[in-house]
Write a structure and sequence with these properties.
Blueprint: E1 8-15, H1 22-38, E2 43-46, H2 73-85, E3 88-98, E4 101-109, E5 115-120, E6 126-127, E7 130-131, E8 148-150, E9 153-157, H3 166-174, E10 179-183, E11 187-189, H4 194-215, E12 218-222, E13 225-228, E14 231-234, E15 238-240, E16 246-249, E17 256-263, H5 265-273
């Protein structure tokens, strides 16, 4: 059966490298947003913590100086850019919520520059060179996972390590998200061999494609590129459709804007033929609230 495209939404994912100069990174990001809008992107998403180098590679107290309040300089600049180009814009900010309380926060601005969504990263890793628990408090907003009407689509935002949790994708989809955006900063350790690197990138892609398929929605993952201290960020930003197929993919080592035209009509079509949401046994999932086993 052949489907004709119906409601097309163009997304633009900004994949870029970063420098030690926050103002320079912001200027670059604003330039890329302008280019994406000129190419017809209606929703533009930046990578995780785009205004700085990925500072979580060590537990360095001095890095807290990078944090800012919301509203603050970065959020105001992003809001102005969204309004100027009349787009929906997803950004990422190291948020200073209060003295000693910091979050890794995704913000969503509509075409008038109004902030319509703020998501504080819920899953916080603590691995070699990803010492995020030192910096970030898990998000505690209610509801923790949400979707917002954003111009032509209803979108939800999650952040990086959230990518590995089907519960987060499912709850965001159940909130009404047609497109899930994952601002990301993930890379290879210097000592990782070719086989390990390929396996890691494949797993990262596979888990997110599975979120698209199991929820019948689009998934957009945007990663950074470049070598920063002990990490080589692997790029590979991509968009998967509601059947889990990759419809656009970026390189692993170049700055670029990845574009994809998402047909929102495909969501209903896919969910009718693969009705995972219909057949969920919500009466049988109480165990998901337990850490492990029966207690």
């Amino acid at each position: 059966m052949v489907r004709k495209p119906s409601r097309q939404v163009r997304v633009g994912l900004v994949q870029m490298s970063c420098t030690p100069r926050p103002d320079q990174n912001l200027k670059k990001a604003l330039g890329q947003i302008a280019k994406a809008a000129k190419e017809g992107a209606q929703i533009v998403c930046l990578q995780e913590l785009f205004r700085s180098l990925y500072f979580c590679q060590s537990e360095d107290d001095a890095q807290f100086a990078l944090a800012e309040e919301i509203p603050g300089p970065t959020s105001k600049a992003l809001a102005a850019s969204a309004a100027k180009h009349k787009i929906t814009l997803v950004g990422s900010i190291f948020e200073r919520r209060a003295e000693g309380l910091y979050h890794n926060t995704a913000v969503v601005f509509n075409e008038r520059g109004k902030m319509i969504g703020k998501y504080r990263k819920m899953h916080i890793p603590d691995d070699p060179r990803y010492y995020e628990k030192f910096f970030f408090t898990p998000g505690d907003a209610e509801p923790g996972f949400f979707a917002v009407p954003a111009g032509p689509a209803c979108i939800g935002t999650l952040v990086c390590w959230d990518q590995w949790y089907p519960e987060a994708a499912r709850l965001t989809a159940l909130a009404g998200a047609q497109i899930l955006f994952y601002p990301t900063a993930i890379g290879w350790h210097k000592e990782d061999g070719k086989e390990v690197r390929q396996a890691q990138a494949d797993a990262w892609e596979l888990i997110q494609r599975s979120h698209a398929l199991s929820n019948g929605c689009f998934v957009c993952a945007v990663n950074r590129v470049g070598v920063e201290d002990g990490l080589t960020f692997w790029g590979g930003s991509f968009v998967a459709d509601p059947f889990g197929r990759i419809i656009a993919k970026a390189s692993h080592d170049r700055e670029e804007i990845l574009y994809a035209d998402c047909d929102l009509g495909l969501i209903d079509w896919t969910r009718r033929h693969w009705p995972f949401l219909r057949d969920r046994r919500i009466d049988a999932y109480g165990g998901i609230l337990k850490r492990y086993g029966q207690s």
